[in-house]
Design brief:
Elements: H1 8-16, H2 24-35, E1 46-50, H3 57-70, E2 74-78, H4 85-98, H5 104-116, H6 137-146, H7 162-177, H8 184-190, H9 192-208, E3 214-218, H10 221-237, E4 248-254, H11 260-263, E5 270-274, H12 280-289, H13 295-305, H14 309-317, H15 333-338, H16 344-352, H17 361-367, H18 372-383, E6 388-391, E7 394-397, H19 399-412, H20 414-436, H21 441-445, H22 448-464, H23 469-483, H24 485-502, H25 505-533, H26 538-554, H27 558-571, H28 576-588, H29 592-605, H30 610-622, H31 626-639, H32 644-656, H33 660-673, H34 678-690, H35 694-707, H36 712-724, H37 728-741, H38 746-758, H39 762-775, H40 780-792, H41 796-809, H42 814-826, H43 830-843, H44 848-860, H45 864-880, H46 899-910, H47 917-930
C-alpha cells in the first residue's frame, strides 16, 4: 500500500520546525545527496559545516538530522559531551538504541572496555626472553607510537626526546625478538579504538541493510576533533578496522575548516559547508516568521545581532513590538536577550541558570527557589529558549549567551555571585558525598558519576573565590591524571572555564598552562609543570611523581620513569602504586629480579589487589620459577576468579612444568572468559604441539592471527608449526611477514633459515642463521642449526666451531650434543664423537637420532656388536612410530634437513662385511619414507 503524501500543513510545519529559517541552500544540498545512491559519483560521504561561534552550526546540524530521519535514516549525534573515541562510539550506540536498534555485541565489548580501562596498570609487565608475555603490549604500543606507526598516538610521543626514542626503538626490537605479543586487554585499554571500531563497524554493516541511510553527526568539532579526527579519517578511508557501509553519511560541524593536510585528498567525496552570518534577507525572514515585522524593531535586532543566527533567533523569540533602547551603546547583550521578557521571575531564572556549565532538573531546583508546582513549568520554559540546547538528559546554554549573562551577574552583585556559586558547590558536594558511600579514593576516581559531581563542585568553588579552591583543584588534577587523559583534560578545562567565567587570572593561567601541556606533551608534561610550580604536600607530590612515571613508561622513557618512581617512593614509602609502576618498568627493561623486588613490596602494601599477585606470578614464570609462579597465580585467581590474564599465565606455567592436562584446563578457562584472547590461544597451541596434535595447534594459531594479524611472534610461532608439519613454503610466508613487522626478530631469522635448509636452499639458510646469531649472540638453537647447515655445505671446521659455541651455551642439550658428535665423526675424530653421543643418550636414552649417528661411529671403531644394538633401537623406533607422527622424548623429531647424511651412514653400514643387509635395507627404506614427515621443532 502506497504511503500517504504529507499534507501542506505538515510540510509547512517541517519547514518551521525548531524555528529554523534560512540556510536553504545547505539544506537542499544535503537533501539532494540523500537522493543519490552511494555509487553515484555525485554522492558525497562527508559534509563539514564550519564557521564562527553563533553562526548557527548546531541549528543547521539538528535540521539536517531531522531531514535524514524524514528519509528513514538511522542517526547518531555526538558533541563535546564525549572526551574520547570510545565515548563517541558509546554515544552512537545509545542514540541507535533510542531509535530501536541496539548494538548488543558492541555494547558487550564496550562494557568489557569500561571494566578493563580501570586496570590499565594490570596489563603492563615485561618482555620475556622466550616468548611473549601478556603484559608487554604497553611497551609495544608506546614504541610503535614513538615510531609513528599508530595514527593518533596522542601525547605520549611528546614525552620522549629523539635519543630516548632511538634507545627505545632498539629496546623494542630486542624485546620483540624475544617473542613479542600484544595482549588483548592491553590493546583494549591503550588502544580501545583498535578493538572497539571493528565491532562497531560489524554492527553498522548489519544495520545498513535495514535502513536506507545511517547518518553520523559530530558537532562542536573544534572540541572533539583532536581525538576523533584521525580515527574518523582512518575509518572512512581504509579498511584496517573493517568495512564501513556505503550508505553511511558523516556530518561534522566546528569552528574551523577541515585540516587539508589530512583531508585534502578526500575533497572529491566531501562537501564543505562554510557558514557565515545570516544575510539581511535571511535575518528578516526569520524575524518575520516570528512575527517581528515593525521596521524600527527589525533594524535594532539586525544591528545588535550582527547577522549571527543565534542572536537573531534569541532576540526574535520574544516578538518585540517596541524598539525601546534602540541606539543605547551601553546596553549589554544579556539585556537584549531578555529585553522583551516581561516576567521578572522568568528573567531572573534565565540569568541564574546560566551559572552551571550544565543543567538538569536537580540543579534547577537548587537554583530556583520557587514553589514546587512552578518549578516544572519554569524548567520546561527555560529548556525551550533558543539559546538552550539539550545534551542528553541535561540542558546547556550557548556560549555566546552564557558568557555575557555570567559577566552581568558578577558585575552587578559580586557578593550575590559568590553566594550563589558557593551554594551550588555545596549542593554538588552533598550529592558527591551521597555517591561516595564509603568507597576508597581509587574506586571513587574510577566512578564517572562521582568525578562529574566533584568537577562541578570544584568549578563552582573556584568561581566563588574560595581561597583553598585553587590548591584543592590542583591536587585533584593529580588524581584526574591517574584516572586517565580524558579526565585530566576535563579538569584542566574546568580551570580555564572557571578562570574566564569568574575573571580570576591565576585560575585561568593555571588552566591554560595545563591544557597546553596536555596537548603538547601529555600527562607527563602537565604533571611536570604541576610539580615544578604548585605547592603540593608530600603525599600529593608522591602520587604526582608516580602518575608521571606511568605516563613516561607508556611513552617508552624508562630512565625518566624510574627516576619519577624513585622520587615518589622517597616521598611516600607506603605508596603501592609507585612500587607497582617501577616494577612494570623494570619488567619492560627485562630486569625481572628488580621487578620482583618492587612487586613484592607492592603486594605487601596492597595484599588484596589481584593484579599485583598476577604480575608477580607472571614474572616468576618468565624467570622459570614455576613453583613460585603457580603459588602467586593461585592467589590472584582466588582474589579475582574472572581474571583471564591470571588463568592464562598459570596455564603457561603449567605447560612449562610439563603438566599438560592442567595447562590445557587453565588455558581453556581463560578462553572461556575471553574467547578473543590471542595470547592464550597461542599458549594453548603450544599445549597441542606438546601433545602432537598439530591440527589443533594450527587452528589456535590461525585464530590468534585472525585476531592480531600484525603479531610478529604469532607469525613466527605458526611458521614453526607449519615447518614441523613439513610445509616449509607456507612457513616461509609467515616468517617473511614476521620479519616485515620486525626486521630485528632473531627467532624469525633462525626459523626461516631452518625452513630454507629444508628446501635445499642452504646458502640462504646460512645467511639467515648468521643474522639470527648476530642479533642474539647467546642463542644455542640457532648456533646448532648453523652447525648443521655448515655440515651440509661441507664446511666441517666451521660447523664444529658453531656447535662448540652452542654446547657452551647449553651444555646438556642432547640435540646439540648429537650434532656435535656428528660433526666430530665427519672430521674422523671417532672417540670424541662417541663420547658426545654417549652423553646425549645419557640425557635421553630414546633419542633415536643419536642412536643412528652412534651406530655409524661404532662401526668405524669396529665395535659391530654395539653398533648393531643401536641399529636395532633405530629399527624398533621406526617400526613403532606411525608415519606422520612428530617427535620423541622431549617432543623433538627423529630427523631434520640433513636426512641424506643419515641415509649415507646407513648405506655405509650396509656395505660392512658383517652387516645384516636385509634389516639394514628395511631401515634405510623407512628413513627415506619418513624424511619429509619427521622434522625437529624449534626449542626457541
Amino acid at each position: 500500500m502506497a504511503q500517504a503524501r504529507p499534507s501542506m500543513q505538515e510540510l509547512i510545519g517541517r519547514r518551521r520546525r525548531a524555528g529554523f529559517v534560512g540556510r536553504s541552500d545547505e539544506r537542499a544540498a544535503f537533501r539532494e545527496n540523500l537522493d543519490l545512491p552511494p555509487e553515484d559519483e555525485r554522492h558525497r560521504f562527508l559534509f563539514h559545516v564550519h564557521g564562527n561561534a553563533g553562526v548557527g552550526k548546531t541549528f543547521l546540524v539538528r535540521e539536517l538530522e531531522q531531514i535524514a530521519r524524514e528519509r528513514g535514516a538511522l542517526t547518531a549525534y555526538v558533541d563535546e559531551g564525549v572526551g574520547s573515541v570510545p565515548e563517541a562510539m558509546a554515544a552512537m550506540s545509545r542514540e541507535f538504541a533510542g531509535q530501536g536498534h541496539e548494538l548488543k555485541k558492541f555494547d558487550r565489548a564496550l562494557a568489557t572496555y569500561r571494566e578493563r580501562r580501570h586496570e590499565a596498570e594490570a596489563v603492563m609487565a615485561g618482555l620475556e626472553p622466550e616468548g611473549p608475555s601478556p603484559v608487554t603490549a604497553t611497551a609495544v604500543r608506546a614504541g610503535l607510537a614513538g615510531l609513528g606507526l599508530i595514527p593518533g598516538a596522542g601525547p605520549f610521543v611528546g614525552a620522549v626526546d629523539a635519543a630516548q626514542l632511538v634507545h627505545y626503538a632498539d629496546r623494542l626490537r630486542r624485546g620483540l625478538s624475544a617473542r613479542f605479543t600484544s595482549q588483548d586487554d592491553v590493546q583494549l585499554v591503550l588502544s580501545p579504538e583498535q578493538v572497539l571500531t571493528p565491532k562497531l563497524l560489524d554492527e553498522l554493516a548489519g544495520l545498513a541493510s535495514a535502513v536506507p541511510w545511517i547518518v553520523l553527526f559530530f558537532d562542536t568539532y573544534e572540541r572533539i576533533g583532536p581525538f576523533v579526527d584521525a580515527w574518523l579519517y582512518e575509518t572512512m578511508t581504509n579498511d584496517r578496522h573493517g568495512s564501513l557501509p556505503a550508505n553511511v553519511v558523516v556530518v561534522t560541524a566546528g569552528q574551523r575548516p577541515f585540516d587539508t593536510a589530512r583531508w585534502g585528498g578526500f575533497a572529491d567525496f566531501m562537501t564543505d559547508v562554510p557558514l557565515g552570518p545570516f544575510t539581511e534577507a535571511e535575518a528578516r525572514g526569520l524575524l518575520a516568521d516570528r512575527g517581528v515585522v515593525a521596521e524600527p524593531v527589525v533594524a535594532e535586532v539586525l544591528r545588535l545581532a550582527g547577522g549571527l543566527p543565534l542572536l537573531v533567533s534569541t532576540l526574535a523569540e520574544q516578538r518585540p513590538a517596541d524598539p525601546d533602547g534602540i541606539g543605547d551603546p551601553t546596553a549589554t547583550a544579556v539585556e537584549r536577550f531578555l529585553k522583551w521578557e516581561p516576567d521578572p521571575v522568568r528573567r531572573g531564572v534565565a540569568l541564574v541558570c546560566a551559572l552551571p556549565r550544565r543543567l538538569d532538573a536537580d540543579v534547577f531546583r537548587a537554583l530556583v527557589e520557587r514553589p514546587e508546582d512552578e518549578v516544572e513549568a519554569l524548567y520546561d520554559w527555560l529548556r525551550g529558549l533558543p539559546f538552550v540546547s539539550e545534551r542528553g538528559d541535561r540542558a546547556q546554554y550557548h556560549d555566546v549567551v552564557r558568557a555575557p549573562m555570567l559577566r552581568l551577574q558578577r558585575r552587578r552583585s559580586p557578593r550575590g555571585w559568590a553566594q550563589r556559586q558557593r551554594r551550588l558547590a555545596e549542593e554538588f558536594g552533598r550529592w558527591r558525598e551521597e555517591t561516595a558511600a564509603g568507597r576508597d579514593v581509587d574506586e571513587l576516581w574510577a566512578d564517572e558519576q562521582w568525578r562529574e559531581l566533584r568537577l562541578a563542585e570544584s568549578y563552582h568553588r573556584l568561581c566563588a573565590g574560595d581561597r583553598q579552591a585553587l590548591p584543592t583543584v590542583l591536587r585533584e588534577f593529580v588524581h584526574a591524571c591517574v584516572a586517565g587523559d580524558a579526565t585530566a583534560q576535563r579538569w584542566a578545562r574546568a580551570l580555564v572555564d572557571a578562570g574566564e567565567d569568574a575573571d580570576v587570572g591565576s585560575v585561568a593561567r593555571w588552566g591554560s598552562d595545563l591544557v597546553q601541556a596536555l596537548e603538547s606533551g601529555g600527562v607527563a608534561d602537565a604533571l611536570g609543570r604541576l610539580l615544578y610550580q604548585a605547592a603540593l604536600d608530600d603525599p600529593d607530590r608522591a602520587l604526582a611523581h608516580a602518575a608521571r612515571g606511568n605516563a613516561l613508561r607508556r611513552g617508552g622513557a624508562y630512565d625518566e620513569a624510574l627516576a619519577a618512581y624513585g622520587r615518589a617512593v622517597a616521598l611516600d614509602r607506603e605508596l603501592a602504586r609507585a612500587y607497582r609502576g617501577r616494577a612494570l618498568t623494570y619488567g619492560e627493561l627485562g630486569d625481572y629480579e628488580a621487578a620482583l623486588a618492587d612487586m613484592e613490596r607492592a603486594v605487601a602494601l596492597a595484599p588484596d589487589d589481584p593484579w599485583v599477585h598476577a604480575v608477580r606470578g607472571e614474572y616468576h614464570r618468565i624467570l622459570r620459577n614455576h613453583d613460585e609462579a603457580v603459588q602467586h597465580l593461585d592467589e590472584a585467581i582466588r582474589l579475582d576468579p574472572a581474571s583471564d590474564f591470571a588463568w592464562a599465565s598459570r596455564g603457561a606455567t603449567c605447560l612449562a612444568r610439563g603438566e599438560l592436562d592442567r595447562a590445557l584446563d587453565d588455558l581453556n578457562h581463560a578462553l572461556e572468559l575471553n574467547p578473543d584472547y590471542a595470547w592464550a590461544l597461542a599458549r594453548r597451541a603450544r599445549v597441542w604441539r606438546a601433545r602432537d596434535e598439530s591440527a589443533r595447534q594450527l587452528a589456535d594459531l590461525d585464530r590468534a592471527l585472525a585476531l592480531q594479524p600484525d603479531w610478529a611472534w604469532g607469525r613466527c610461532e605458526r611458521g614453526d608449526a607449519l615447518r614441523v608439519a613439513g610445509r616449509d613454503e607456507e612457513a616461509l610466508s609467515d616468517y617473511d611477514r614476521a620479519l616485515a613487522l620486525d626486521p630485528e626478530y632473531a627467532s624469525a631469522y633462525a626459523s626461516r633459515g631452518v625452513s630454507l635448509s629444508g628446501l635445499g636452499r642452504h646458502a640462504e639458510a646460512l645467511t639467515d642463521l648468521d643474522r639470527a646469531v648476530r642479533l642474539r649472540p647467546e642463542y644455542p638453537w640457532a648456533e646448532c642449526r648453523r652447525g648443521i647447515v655448515l655440515l651440509e655445505l661441507g664446511s666441517r671446521d666451521a660447523a664444529l666451531a658453531a656447535l662448540d659455541r652452542a654446547k657452551a651455551l647449553s651444555p646438556d642439550d642432547e640435540w646439540i650434543l648429537t650434532w656435535r658428535g656428528r660433526a666430530l665423526a665427519v672430521l674422523e675424530r671417532w672417540d670424541e664423537a662417541r663420547a658426545e653421543l654417549d652423553r646425549a643418550l645419557e640425557l635421553n636414552a630414546d633419542f633415536v637420532l643419536a642412536h643412528g649417528f652412534r651406530c655409524a661411529v661404532l662401526t668405524r671403531l669396529a665395535l659391530h656388536e654395539e653398533a648393531c644394538a643401536d641399529l636395532v633401537r633405530c629399527f624398533e623406533f621406526l617400526e613403532a612410530v606411525p608415519l606422520g607422527e612428530n617427535g620423541i622424548g622431549r617432543g623433538e623429531a627423529v630427523l631434520d634437513e640433513p636426512t641424506s647424511r643419515v641415509i649415507r651412514v646407513l648405506e655405509e653400514l650396509i656395505r660392512a662385511p658383517d652387516a645384516d643387509r636385509a634389516a639394514l635395507a628395511r631401515i634405510l627404506a623407512r628413513f627415506g619414507t619418513a624424511r619429509d614427515l619427521l622434522r625437529p621443532q624449534s626449542t626457541d
